[in-house]
Amino acid sequence: MINELGQGIFDNTFLDNPEMREDDYLLCYNENQVLLKPSGNSFEIPRKRDYSGRIETVVFLFTIHNKHCFGLSAAKVNDPGMDFHDIFTLRNLPNQEHAWIGSIGFQLMTWYTNNKYCGRCGSETVRRKEERSVICPVCQLVEYPKISPAVIVAITCNDKILLAKGKNYKGDFYALIAGYVDAGESIEETVVREVKEEVGLDIKNLKYYKSQPWPFSSSLMLGFTAEADDTQPIVIDEKEIKEAGWFTRGELPPHASGISISGHLIEAFEKGIF
Length: 274
What we know:
The protein has three helices and 16 strands. It has 274 residues and is of the alpha+beta class.
């Protein structure tokens, strides 16, 4: 999974305006696009030395492999050697460490952009020096990066797994049933509700599997396995699901890659881990 790429090398410690070195990473986003540097037949995350113009105001984000990562406003970039690409391009980079850097940077820079103004009084916020947060100088409201908890579940019946195509998926592939936790719910209750809402099934033997941060939607994905009786009719929620069905290990359709917890769970099923 994408977050496992950063284990042991990713340092999320907040630093107040550290010096930017030539080989530090300098990330730039324009809404749902990321600035990438050509590298052979693919792309990579640019470093400070790759920018031809003068770099002024940047935001410290995190550290990886002892290299600082900074964010830069898209309005201040005009470099002919690099181009903006859809943010999901990161999922297919050969250098998966760069995919991790770009995705976490996207989450943090999106949060800074969305909190430029106070949600209570509308005044412009100020980045705090002691921690990763912003404060309103007028009403003193403090905002921290928001993480949205969500569940995802691999539902099996004997040697079959339930897979679905979402209406909002980018690409023609299958994935697992997933959804966000509502106020007042436990994560277990969320799994039961989402499965019932999206495919009309009752589940049993619900077990926690593992979690994964998913920066593209600022989510923390909580993965589960569960079982269901395949004699129950599948009744899809046509607002969210395009199609759903049971698949054996030998007939799995194109599905989410192992960079995501959805793909990881499907691959674990394929290997007979559960």
